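Figure S7 source data.
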Amino acid sequence: MNDLEKKQRTIIEPFKIKMIEPLPFTSKEERKQILENAGFNLFLIPANKVTFDFLTDSGTTAMSASQWGAMLTADESYAGSTSFYKFEKKVKELTGYSYVIPTHQGRAAERLLFSILVKSDSKIPSNNHFDTTRANIEHASGEAIDLVIAEGKNPSVFHPFKGNIDLEKLENFCKENHQFIPFGMLTITNNTGGGQPVALENIRGASKIFKRYDVPFILDACRFAENSYFIKLREKAYENYSARDIAKEIFSCADGCLVSAKKDALGNIGGFIALRDGKWVDQIRNLLILTEGFPTYGGLAARDLEALTVGLDEVLDENYLSYRLAVCRYMAEGLNKLGIPTVQPPGGHAVYIDAKSFLSHIPPENFPGQALVCELYIEEGIRCCEIGSVMFGKQSGAKFHPSAMELVRLAIPRRVYTQSHFDYILEGISNIVARKNKIRGLKIIYEPPYLKHFTAKFSVV
Ligand code: F0G
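Tokens for the predicted F0G complex:
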């Protein structure tokens, strides 16, 4: 960790607040009842019963006055909207890719690309696929392969770039399977593995391997700005580069990207596919017209495209990025001081609690992560999500295959909460530490066929 990362104690939010939203407060008794009614699944709780919402950093950004201002200037024409051309220019400028296809969010971009490229024998390597990416690959009957470095699977090991892909494994995988790989991916930052960055050297290494085997390289780049700033802080060769130049370098290594614009494009909705080469573009656009809308709006209102165009610039402001990474670090350090282990080092958009180690008395099949998620809600109305065996565990017959890690993710919405909120939260969490041995596990009483964490229901064991 370099000095810049260690130095900051008081977090300076690099903005003034000109619009506010009251925090909803509830009593502990109310929260217990609400939780039970929701089958112990926090996705099923109304937001107005949540005091601090850390469910996701996706689409939860507080937009700036410039973004709201730009929205008023939107051109809502069905075809050829001026707002689209502004958006297209901004994405081209940032990525260097020639073809820009807006979509309503990241998973729509995934579905469009994968519908065209993924076949029943396809294998798609990445560091870690995010859950919707994996689900969309599997839905197109392909196989999603995770090749993150060993350190990336161990929550307590320190590594500056735990999102790196294992280049040796990738080389071997491509050597053996290249005819079945329609494209390779890297997720920046690596959300599933803890919001961990990928080094530029590693991105370049992956790019060379993919080129050698003639495999197109597609970035899942929704947190590209946070990843770029980590590179500036942690990769010596780039310490004098701007976050913007690093982002451009990253995109230059790949053939295209899928982006959920609900993260680092600072939007409340949106996404895009950007590609260097036009060979898949007609097919994608035809499919887009079938299910999303005309190619110059892709299922979005033009005002959303306006907000994203401004957001893609604002996110690369280094005062913002420095504050953004400081927030996660502050929260992680606060939790560690209370004796709660977190993935080390903290990632860019979220703090990941290692629930397997914190609640070691609860076995994976009783979901220690989900049990902690419920406790955080009961204690102070915090909503967050499990990334563990609820999300990735598989039951085959009598045997339960748990997830490699049992994490609880407190995803931090961009520009929404202040340092005093985090201090207040940490005070409350210390009560959970005091009663942790009394916390009980859960069992699933209902689960859907896909993405079960969104709608599964539980009971206490
Ligand atoms: N890729 C990554 C790495 C993501 O984190 C997400 C979404 C997506 C793709 C899909 O984008 O939601 O716009 O369809 N992650 C959110 C989260 C949901 O909470 O981490 P989307």
